Amino acid sequence: MNAGPALVSILRQGSYLIASIHTALDDSQMVRFQQDLIGQIGQHRSRGVIIDVAALDVLDSFGSKTLRNIAEMARLRGATTVIVGIQPDVAFAMVELGMGTGSVHTALDLEEGLAYLDSTVPRRTASEADVAGRG
């Protein structure tokens, strides 16, 4: 049975995770994404997380709250989160509805998100990288 295209993808790049949301998610899918991403932060000992929402043309209040929650959970696990790719219409609607990303950093695109993490996330020591490579 074909499950269809992936709704999200989570890729590891060094000490970062890059999570791309490919289509609008319903509430249960958003919660599953949150659980998967937080689990992978520990599994890979990630220091930074980028959540790419460029494919979304709408972000409801539950989605916005879940992204803030993910960032806070990631922070508690030692990772910095950046949300990238918020479309102009989505940004406009979020402001009009009083929704925001709270204290979560945002960037225009993946390149700027990576640059932000590179400038703010401490580098791993050689022994930490060795431990992470075995995990």
Structure overview:
- It is a single chain.
- With 135 residues, this protein is α/β, with parallel strands linked by helices.
- It has one domain (8-130): Transcription Regulator spoIIAA, CATH 3.30.750.
- It has helices at 27-44, 61-76, 88-96, 110-120, 126-134; strands at 8-13, 16-21, 48-52, 80-84, 105-107.
- It has a five-stranded mixed β-sheet with strand order 1-2-3-4-5, with helices on both faces.
- β2 (16-21), α1 (27-44) and β3 (48-52) form a beta-alpha-beta unit.
- It is globular.
- The model has no long low-confidence stretch (mean pLDDT 89).
Kindly report how far apart the N and C termini lie: 32 Å
Beta strands, count: 5
- Overall shape: globular
Largest sheet: 5 strands, mixed
CATH architecture grouping: 2-Layer Sandwich
Helix content: 40-55%
CATH class: Alpha Beta
**Low-pLDDT runs:** none
Q: Strand share of the residues?
A: 15-25%
Tell me the radius of gyration: 15 Å
- Give the rounded overall mean pLDDT: 89
> Would you list the SSEs in sequence order as H and E?
EEHEHEHEHH
